[in-house]
Amino acid sequence: MSTDISLKHINKLAIPALISGISEPILSLTDAAIVGNIDLNATESLAAVGIVTTFLSMLIWVLGQTRSAISSIVSQYVGANQLDKVKNLPAQAIFIITSLSVLIIIGTYPFAQNIFKLYNASGLILDYSVDYYKIRVFGFPFTLFTIAVFGAFRGLQNTYYPMIIAIIGAFANIVLDVILVYGVSDIIPAMNIKGAAYASVIAQLIMAAFSTYYLLKKTPIPLKISFPFNKEINKFIIMILNLFVRTLALNTTLYFATRFATGYGAAYIATYTIAINLWFFAAFFIDGYASAGNILSGKLFGGKAYDLLLKLSNKLIKYAIIIGIVLALIGAIFYYPIGKLFSKDPEVLALFYNSFWIILIMQPLCSLAFIFDGMFKGLGKMRSLRNVLLFSTFVIFIPMLFWLDSLGYKLHGIFVALTFWILARGIPLIVKFRKIFIPLSQNN
Question: What is the pTM of this model?
Answer without folding.
Answer: 0.76
